[in-house]
Design goal:
Length: 337
């Protein structure tokens, strides 16, 4: 499928996920040229791009002109863009002119509510895909959930785990409040738990303390300003029974954490009711809670995990995800209406 296919790949940097996607494409035989979608990943630049893009327009345009110069003598089979937060229209126009036969693929793992630029550039792509079922309906996009990496496949079921409950996530919205309520419940039931809250930096923390009311509840000592490595996460999953997922209130798409739990064959407690619509939903494996009225069930922690069909499991892997996006959906419909 991918053998000797030339792919121009753009993605913002996010916990090295973009590097793992590039490496997987290469391992499948593709020839990949990867570029960060942002000219810089400093906190200031990220803020400018989101809030005052016009102030950074010259730098963005120069960055993409440089890329055009670097690829001017190359012919690609695919343009693969994830998110589309930054890439300017003039670049896409030029690429279409110089690579008229290339298939152009857009995928987003963010809601369009958080990313205005992506709506402007959809017209340049033949294949338009989102992880969010609401955006898929509203904008006429295909739906494809996120994925898990191969490293999660090797996690074996054990009975002598350290943590009945595990939460790993970036600090935002009401996550800290909800996680603490659930941890308190676990403590009352003598169930062990482990939580890890990540934030991009101390400057971000103090900024959010001023402008985000939910951050006044955060215990500074419980925040980490260094992200976990993939091996750290794998080790924590190995030692845990149930994974807690607290989605952002404004997003409907299934989180990466949810898919990692599926890959590791772990039970999930989630605040995202959308998961009930997906074909792999199983109430024995997935407990959906109301973030405004948390009701937990002790039996959920003790019951066995039930494997999902192998075809669905494989389609949710990184390889299945890439095959669906580039060539053909591995699963015809992810959601049962």
């Amino acid at each position: 499928m991918f053998n000797n296919k030339k792919i121009l790949f753009f993605s913002v940097k996010l916990f090295s996920i973009e590097n793992k996607i590039e490496n997987k494409l290469s391992s499948l035989g593709a020839i990949v040229d990867y570029y960060d979608e942002r000219p810089s990943n400093s906190i200031l630049v990220k803020g400018l791009i989101r809030l005052k893009r016009d102030l950074y327009k010259r730098r963005i345009d120069n960055y993409y002109r440089k890329i055009l110069y670097e690829i001017k003598d190359k012919e690609y089979d695919f343009l693969f863009l994830i998110k589309g937060e930054v890439i300017p229209e003039f670049f896409l126009k030029k690429f279409c002119e110089s690579n008229p036969s290339a298939k152009r693929i857009f995928y987003t793992w963010d809601s369009f509510n958080n990313n205005n630029n992506s709506k402007k550039i959809l017209k340049y792509f033949q294949s338009k895909i989102t992880f969010d079922s609401y955006d898929a309906k509203q904008f006429g996009l295909d739906l494809q959930p996120l994925f898990f990496f191969d490293s999660f496949k090797g996690i074996k079921k054990i009975n002598n785990f350290k943590h009945h409950l595990l939460f790993i996530g970036t600090a935002h919205s009401d996550r800290y409040i909800l996680a603490n309520k659930i941890v308190d419940w676990c403590n009352d039931k003598e169930l062990s738990s482990y939580t890890f809250f990540y934030l991009q930096g101390r400057i971000v923390y103090f900024f959010k303390r001023i402008f985000d009311s939910t951050f006044k509840y955060f215990d500074y000592k419980k925040l980490s300003f260094k992200s976990l490595t993939e091996q750290d996460i794998i080790d924590l999953y190995k030692d845990s029974n149930v994974i807690l997922d607290i989605n952002h209130p404004s997003q409907k798409g299934l989180t990466m954490r949810t898919l990692e739990a599926v890959g590791a064959r772990k039970k999930i407690i989630t605040t995202n009711p959308e998961i009930k619509k997906y074909i792999f939903y199983n109430e024995n494996n997935i407990l959906v809670i109301d973030r405004n009225n948390i009701v937990l069930n002790e039996d959920f922690f003790t019951g066995p995990y039930q494997d999902i069909p192998e075809q669905i499991y494989d389609a949710l892997s990184i390889e299945g995800w890439l095959k669906s996006i580039f060539f053909k959906n591995q699963i015809e419909k992810w959601i049962v209406e």
